[in-house]
Amino acid sequence: MLEAGFWGLVGGAALIVGALAGLLVRVPFKVIGLVMAFGVGVLFSAVAFELTAEAYDRAGADAVVIGLFAGAVVFFLGDAVIDRYGGHRRKDPAGPQEDASGAALLLGALLDGIPESAAIGMSLIGGGGIGIPFVAAVFLSNVPEGVSATVGMKKKHSTAYILGMWVAVAVASGLAAMAGYAILGGAGDTAHAVVQSFAAGAILTMLTDTMVPEATKHADKTAGLVTALGFTCAFLLSMA
């Protein structure tokens, strides 16, 4: 369980790396969009090959379909609540909505990151090693997320607040990975597959709702090419 927490913390720490880059370096919006597009492609690949395909092998189509749609619906509803308090543009480097509260931004970051971290913890169940391709995918996608959100937030919030928020999210990521391992450690294949697919559905909905719009907004049509590049790199890593 401690190992799961460590790897979840590693994935979450990428947000702090991105936040520091956003605070210390003047990054053009187009570069942020391109890097975010690469992260989108990486996570799409990880969802397909590290989560959904593995869940299907464990328990078949029924468990996968139930988990995917349950995860998508839960994320959609949670995101809708956060949007009402100004969290809709939480990953936009141009800045969040004017009425965005600090709590909405924090809860949005937690909602985005917890499914990924729980999936990291689940990858250790059964005595296998950590799913390095998935951890790498989470890390690579979290860096541009941290950069983008930080560049936008620093117009309204202090450096101390921003760094404190990302540290809290990184710690929560470690705890979510531990929870994913602890809760499913003794569960059967069907339960494991449903929860694994649940995480996949939540991540897919998060990508479409929060990352893809920002990537295409700031990188224009080039975002599609870079997304394909990210997908290809992550696919080759998962097949190695």
UniProtKB/TrEMBL annotation:
Transmembrane segments annotated in the record for this chain: 6-25, 32-51, 63-82, 160-184, 190-210, 222-239
Domain of life: Bacteria
Keywords: Membrane, Transmembrane, Transmembrane helix
Name of the protein in its database record: ZIP family zinc transporter
